[in-house]
C-alpha cells in the first residue's frame, strides 16, 4: 500500500513528514501490505493523540507515551460498550494494545537511527542477567499476557464437521487442508495449482504467502487427498486455467481467486451453525499443532511443520498438550490425529447442495 493511499486513509500521517518517511522505508523493504497497513494505523492513532494533547512527537517523552497507553487501556470496544475484555479491563485486549505500541516503538527507533532523537521513549522489556531469582525480564510499558490458544473440545469438533459435511466440496477440502497442513488463512487461500504434488501428497507453501517469509513443504493425509481429487475435478468445471487453486463460484466473482474475507465468512457461518462461535480460520492450525504435540512430535519438528522461525511460538502447543507434565497423556493420544483424519474423510462421503459464496 503506497503512502499516498495511507495518507488518504489516515490524513494525520500526511501532516507528519517523518511518519510518512518511516512507512515508505518499510514499504521499500518489501514488507507485506497488510503489515504496512497495521503499522500505519497504529502510528496514526498515536499521532492523533499527540495532536489532541499538543505534543510534538519528535520531542515526546515517557510521560506522553504513558498518556497514550492510558488511552488504549481505557478505550471502549468498537463492538459495543457492553463488551469487556477480561485481560485488559477494557474493550481492547492485551494483545491489541501490544500491537498498537509496536509501530510507535519502531518509529522512534527510526528517529534514533536518523539522528533525530537520542533515546526511545517507548522502550521495551529487557532481560537482565544476574537478577535475583535466576534473572528475569524488566516489564515493558504494558505487561504482556501470554494466553494459550483456544481449541475445540471433541464434541465441538464433531459438531463443526457435521455442519461442514453439507458444504460444497471446495469448502470441505479447504477445511481439511487447513487442519492437515496447519495452514494460516492467507497460506490456504493463496495456494496455486502448481503448489500441489499429489504423487507424494505434499503441498508447497510459498514464502511470499507466509507470515515470516519462510517457504516450506508440508504433507497432507490420504483422505484429504481424496477430497482434493474430487475438488480438482469440480474446479475444472469452473475454470481449466492453471493458477489460484480455490476459486469463487458466485455470479459476481465467478472463477476469480477466493478472497480471504470470503473464506472467513464461510468459516464463520459454519461456526455459528455448529454453535461453536469461537471457531475461526486459525483454529484448525492451533488444533493440528496441538495434536502433533500430543502425539509426541519433537519441538523442532513441529516448528518446521508450522513454519515458525523461532521455537518460542511452538512451545505454546507443547505446553497446551501437557506433554512436559504428563508423558503418559501424549502416549495415550497417539491415535487422535488419525481419528481426526478419518472424520475428515467422511466429509468426502456426504452429499452437498449448499450454494457457494
Automatic annotation (TrEMBL):
Region annotation (Disordered) ranges: 119-138
This protein's UniProt keywords: DNA recombination, DNA-binding, Plasmid
GO biological process: DNA integration; DNA recombination
GO MF term (any one): DNA binding
One Pfam family in the UniProt entry: Phage_integrase
Protein name in UniProt: Integrase family protein
Keyword Nucleotide-binding included in the entry's annotation: no
Top-level taxonomy: Bacteria, Bacillati, Actinomycetota, Actinomycetes, Kitasatosporales
Lineage: superkingdom: Bacteria
InterPro entries for this protein: CB (IPR044068), DNA_brk_join_enz (IPR011010), Integrase-like_cat_sf (IPR013762), Integrase_catalytic (IPR002104), Integrase_recombinase_N (IPR010998), Tyrosine_recombinase_XerCD (IPR050090)
Span of domain Tyr recombinase: 146-330
Residue intervals of the Core-binding (CB) domain: 17-112
